[in-house]
Amino acid sequence: MTINRNWKSYLYFSLIIIGILTSLPASAQSDDAVQAGKKLFNANCAACHKLNKRAVGPALRGISSKYDREWLYSWIKNSTAMVKSGDAQAVAIYEEYNGSVMTSFLQFSNDDIDNIIAYTDYVPPAPAMTTAVPVVSGQASGGISNSIILVALAMVFVVLVIMLLLVQRTLIRIAAASGVDITPPQKPKRTPLWQAFIQNQFLIIVSVILLLLSSAYFAYGFLMQVGVDQGYMPVQPIHYSHKIHAGANQIECKYCHSSARVSKHSGIPSLNVCMNCHRNIAEYNGEEDLENGYTKEFYTKEIKKLYTAVGWDETNQQYTGETQPVKWVRIHNLPDFVYFNHAQHVEVGEIACQKCHGPVEEMEIMYQYSPLTMGWCINCHRETNVKVENNEYYTKIHEALSKKYGVEKLTVAQMGGLECGKCHY
Amino acid sequence: MSLLKGDQERLMASNKTYWKNIDQLNPDDEVVQKMEQNEFVTKLPEDFLTDEKTLEDSSTSRRDFLKYVGFSTAAATLAACEGPVIKSVPYVVQPEQIRPGIANYYATTIGDGFDFSSILIKTREGRPIKVESNPDAPTLGCANARVHASVLSLYDTLRLQGPEAEGKDISWDNLYLQTGAMLKALSATNKKVVLMTPTLASPSSQKVINNFIKVFSNVEHVVYDVISSDAALNAYENYYGIRGLADYDFSEVKVLVSIDADIVGDWQGGGFEGGYAKSRIPKGDDGKAEMSWHIQFESNMSLSGANADHRVPCTPADQKNVLAYIYDSLTGSSSGSSLPNSIKESADKAIIRLKAAGVNGVLVSGIEDETAQGIVLAINSWLKSQAFQPESPKLIRQGNATSVQKVFKEIENGTVKGLITVGVNPVFTSANGSKLGKAIKNLEFSLAFASKKDETSEASKFIASTPHYLESWGDYEMKSGHFALSQPTIRPLFDTQQFQDVLLRLTGENTNYYDFIKEYWNSSILGSSSWSAALHDGYFSNGKSAKLTKPNFSAIDPRGLRKASAPKMSLVLYTKTGMGDGQQANNPWLQEFPDPITRVSWDNYLTLSMTDANALGLKNTNTSNGALNGSYASVTVGDTTIKVPVLIQPGQANGTAGLSFGYGKRLGLKPEMQTGVNAYTVYENFQKVQSVQIKDAEGEHEFACVQLHNTLMGRGDIIKETTLEVFNTKDKKYWNAMPQVSKNHMEFDVTSPEVDMWQEFDRSIGHHFNLSIDLNSCTGCGACVIACHAENNVPVVGKAEVRKSRDMHWLRIDRYYSSAASFEGDNETKDAISGIGDSLSTFGEMEQASANPQVAFQPVMCQHCNHAPCETVCPVAATSHGRQGQNHMAYNRCVGTRYCANNCPYKVRRFNWFLYNKNDEFDYHMNNDLGRMVLNPDVVVRSRGVMEKCSFCIQMTQKTILDAKLKGEEIKDGTFQTACSNACSTGAMTFGDINDKESEVSKLLEDKRMYHLLEAVGTKPNVMYHTKVRNTDDKTI
Prior knowledge:
The structure holds two protein chains of two kinds. Chain A is mainly alpha-helical. Chain A contains 19 helices and three strands. The radius of gyration of chain A is 37 Å and the shape is flat. In chain B, 30% of the residues lie in helices and 21% in strands. In chain B, helix 5 packs parallel to helix 26 (783-792), helix 8 (230-240) crosses helix 13 (370-383) and helix 11 (316-331) crosses helix 12. The longest helix of chain B has 20 residues, at 62-81. Chains A and B meet through helix 12, strand 3, helix 14, helix 17 and helix 19 of A and helix 4, strand 2 and helix 32 of B.
């Protein structure tokens, strides 16, 4: 029966393949245009336009049916001139979008524009459901056989157990009938282990010492981690993924944390920095992590949280002015009596952010990577050389100090980076 | 005496007798003796352990104690396990100019009617946190102690939060509606309304007022200077045709004669100390150095008197006589004088010197008499004095006492129907305040523009809440042709509006004051210059000078002055360096600021000479813990009697008593700040000199006086001084001797490595910071003390704690009196001493010297010793030395043993006896959210049980270094600053890197006047002082 079904599905499958192959030459040319159009669209249009949704400018799917082709050519090439000339359609669209001016694309040829329009008109065929049938059936048959085998094996085991029990019973009966004594011999009485332990003073002393040592070890460990929040990973009001921003999209850390270049604080970016990109990125289209529930919808919902906070009205593409500042939970907390300066480490010392903050580009949820203890700081100051190249401030000092210590390169510690007052004031 | 003659002479030169308190002159005073011997002012509680009965009776047993200790340790450990969740809220849209962690500076101007200066405001994350002088401003670019403290007044919790009508909150719209209607009604019936402002010196505000008067013609504008300069203004107006004050530049002066003009204080609006101090430094070749000669005739001991070479205490009447005598002598119309001999002698000296100096001489006076002020102008014109600059009058005093008094009368008799006050409080600041207050209550219309509830706004129907100057726009014409702008440095904290905005709206003009100023400046002041540039700089000069008439002094008649005679006792009212006219009485920094002369904080008092106090039976006593108590006196002027505590002031002229303005306010002040008595109640007719009767009153007042705190354990040579003659003629070894120490029967300098106990650390690489303090140019003004408070988050501890010598000032300005009137006199007296018995009686005689002591100021902060005694005794190594010369203090490491403070020879370490922030027991700025906004985020706020001290502003030096590293450039001299050196407008404090051989401070290190405090101790401090040179020799004329 299974053979029969498989044979049928093969038949369907080959039929579909033949169908696709025959239709291919006909659509090849327009497909090229769509591909070229897609490239141009992503490079030039995507900042303001979306296919299916209104963004800064209108949604572009099916735009060719709304406007005359010639009109579109001249609009795309120089929209401002058209608005000025008083073209009714042009003025209408200009006013609909609150007078935001569309960039002129004088470099586009009519062919380029045709390609873009081809892309915007292109409706990808719905995925062919038929091809899925054989696969599904194949999977289904495998699943059924596996469980049958499992059930059968279980049955065999049960039967075996019953059989063994029956055999044992019979053997006991035989032994009783033949008069063989099968009761086990009595064991001599021994002192229980715990009593023996108590009686052995040496063991007691040794184990007490061990106990004390181990509890001291754990107590020390516990006390030393008091106030150390390594691994602190609080839940944030908006699920912001460094993995997507710094990892997948490779956004430079200091693009958002720009204060780190000049100030002691790296700064949590203000929401207008987010909107530089998210004005155009209203939904998430990247990879999903289904295991943790990070679906596209999940991420898109987080982007909507940003819009609520910053007061961005998506449908009208404008700010409402009603803001709800985000209360982030601060992860890296240095005590008040410590002075730490980001700019000195990042700009002067040219230390990578990851050195202290860890592989941020892989962190779905941000956490404290380093212990941020004084010992940790000091160790680094002992090991790291000061970047003195091309920095006039260091020229004289470095020359004199390296001569004094007889070294090529000076560590931060040799520069005085271990003095109390350098960080505590 | 086993010393050789030479040694003795050398020791004499530097061993003048210094004293801080009159009781120190009395060798039998037990309290002082005890304090000299015992460094712990209160007895240590050592008997409680041996007292078995108390221990047995105690309800807490040993077991209980252990239980509590165990529980609290466990609880503390558990509580520490869970860290708090800290939220961070970034901007939604971050303003471009704000970068978290980076300070922004704005140039602005303060002009509150009393203090005017161009300043820079440091803001962090949008909060103003510090005031600094604007060194580029050509006029009044120096901030005094009050201006430095004014940033804290911005965060005053008692500021008015919105407009009020009849004591109830109303909206601004409602206020406009009601006041507008009332003004129109009064205008329609032509009933007189008075608009009373302090000196605004603001051209655009004047135009706003003029426009207002155009619409409401029944309004009269009256300028009310709370502390009047009326006589000087009238005199200048008489001779030059403009209401203003002649300007002076003392920087090149050779002879300065001051008759009761507190030129380094608040005389004629202040701002003269920079120039004055320049003339005080001996300049020129070896042996021919020159400095100015300053003689001061005055009644109260003022800052200027304290800085003078010759100070002549005399009554106000004698001052007039002296002025007339000098005038007569200079003009050759000598007509004899009734002056007492001692004063006449000094006046003669002044005359001879003035004549000799010619254009390099100048005479100034603070006598409140039109003729006297006219004579001053005449003398300076006659001398052709270069310091005298009448051609560009100062416009920062405009008040007219006559018209103010007329208006007060009209308010009382009902001629005036309406009153608008702007930032003035006549009910509190006038002699008949209570009567005036009642009259204001009965007016048809009264509107008070006030930033805080005060006596006048309390009596007024409407209160319009005004912003602090750091939230306001404004412009000033400080001197004719010299303009300044003020701009907001923070959004208004409360629902406030500037009076100019309100007047503009009431006038019906549809513009705000900012646009108005801009428009006015562009059309009338700037010419073709840029508004933005002027706003950026904070000042603008268009070079236009005022149109003056040519003065004719022929009609001067000094007869009235000659005839002046003193009453039995004159009361001389003055302003204290810290409190000024009292506008900022709710400012805890200023309340806790010790007066430079008396060293008393949190009070005003009646200053009396020793002789007068003895005659009246008034006393000052020192308690065993170093605190000062004083008797009360009842002071009667006319019908008014007030009860004032008495402070005996060395140098106070006999027959005079001093009392300062600015205290005694009750409304709009926190209970802690309601200190002192109101001197305005006896400020009859705007005359600072009043005839007075003083009587003993009941009770004893407790002062918070810091002068006997932190005794020097008998190490008296902490101040070095000499005279110009000695400085020019003798070797450095004579007047600035390096102490010697003997090793293997050889004499070595104490600084020699041969006799050093310590291994020297190599500090020749990198930066090595030094601070230089010139005792010649330090006037004791105290701006550095407040700047230090603001920069370093120094807590305010309150009167009771200060009294227990627990004040937290990182920087104190010690004031020393020395007994002899002249240096030679001192030497001769001491040379003549033979044997102990004689020495006692001679010191007893020196008590007479308290009639007119010499004064020296010495700012003392942590000396950052290279061989610091504090570092070696710290059991936890909380204080350690940096390579850059700074003595570091790691607060988080300190466990509070106080060994370091005990071992410090300079007594500059301060201990946090309590938690001074977020503590309900204290009610100062660190104990409310608003006040905490002034804190400097770069400096830790210290906790209880921690030792603290001056850090050489390591946060500032580090910032400079870090910025240089970031820019990748070398650091230029002058870039390194501390809060105190930055605040010093006289240039007495210079900070810098001595490893930079070109720097100013390394040149100062080589100066022959340079010495270190207590060199003999061998601490090798990084703070250096410059020997004070006094120009007291008559031979050099």
